[in-house]
């Protein structure tokens, strides 16, 4: 009887883990904090708490793992020790201007966030990194439902991956990119968009990104080793519903 109960518990665990998302998304499963991180429930100050929420809102967790523990992609470092390695000024510059080579379309780089994340939010994120990325209640990505169709899953991914911060709600665009030729980050909707970007083209740009120039120009990040094919399909299905 006990053996059966244990088996049921294990199977529910596996089902839940599978439901939570794609294979590359270890980060979306709630993880217990690593040994070097402050224990859950340790009180944090307001800046650190705000930083933890911004860390999720701007999808840092999607590339660097929940609470920055890594394990998402071999190309993306863990952030658990950055507070010891870098000064506040260095971390601020990395977030504002990005890091790594953006010229290899097969590998992700640290995106440029200049003008997308406010100075206050960057300062809060740096406080959170400096505090060792503690667990903060509610600072978690939204669970992605896998039983309601691709478009629904894609709409949640659109938020969790921070597409919304650059392309706007419902892909309406309008976010300034003053140093770029168009001076604006493109919308993902409308007749012109549909004609120029059939699904295969959208897949290509999500996976390989599109670099418009050096910082502070904001470019489309590479999501290649971060997202599964299925997740990219879900995003494409969602974008297809935008009119
Ligand atoms: C699209 C994936 C992606 C996203 C999103 C992302 N990063 Fe990064 N980040 C990287 C990669 C790749 C590197 C390594 C760059 C290199 O050194 O080549 C990196 C490096 C860093 C570093 C330097 C770490 C080190 O040890 O060198 C910091 C700090 C950092 N990121 C913070 C952030 C923060 C804060 C956010 C959210 C605002 C964020 N990242 C979002 C991909 C990403
Ligand atoms: C840091 C800001 C940023 C983020 C985050 C971002 N994008 Fe982009 N995206 C851009 C920029 C800038 C371009 C324009 C690139 C160009 O013109 O070559 C772009 C272009 C695109 C395009 C092609 C449309 C066009 O007119 O060029 C698609 C499709 C797209 N992004 C989808 C996404 C999806 C899906 C996500 C989330 C997984 C995402 N983007 C996240 C900045 C961003």
Structure overview:
With 243 residues, this protein is mostly helical. The chain has a domain at 150-240: Cytochrome Bc1 Complex, Chain D, domain 2, CATH 1.10.760. It is built from 11 helices and no strands. It has helices at 2-20, 46-57, 60-64, 82-85, 88-97, 119-130, 150-160, 163-167, 191-196, 199-208, 229-240. Helix 5 packs across helix 6 (119-130) and helix 10 (199-208) packs across helix 11 (229-240). The chain is globular. The model is unreliable at 1-35 (pLDDT under 50). The structure holds heme C (2 copies). One heme C (HEC) is lined by residues 58-60, 62-64, 75-77, 79, 82, 91, 94-95, 99-100, 108-111, 113, 117, 125, 221, 226.
SSE order and pairing:
Blueprint: H1 2-20, H2 46-57, H3 60-64, H4 82-85, H5 88-97, H6 119-130, H7 150-160, H8 163-167, H9 191-196, H10 199-208, H11 229-240
Helix pairs in contact: 2-6, 5-6, 7-11, 10-11
Bound molecules: heme C (HEC) (2 copies).
Residues 58-60, 62-64, 75-77, 79, 82, 91, 94-95, 99-100, 108-111, 113, 117, 125, 221, 226 line the site of one heme C (HEC).
CATH superfamily of the domain at 150-240: Cytochrome c-like domain
Overall geometric form: globular
CATH architecture of the domain at 150-240: Orthogonal Bundle
Termini, distance in Å?
Answer: 55 Å
Mean pLDDT: 87
Number of helices: 11
Radius of gyration: 19 Å
Bound molecule types? heme C
Give, in order, the helices and strands: HHHHHHHHHHH
CATH top-level class of the domain at 150-240: Mainly Alpha
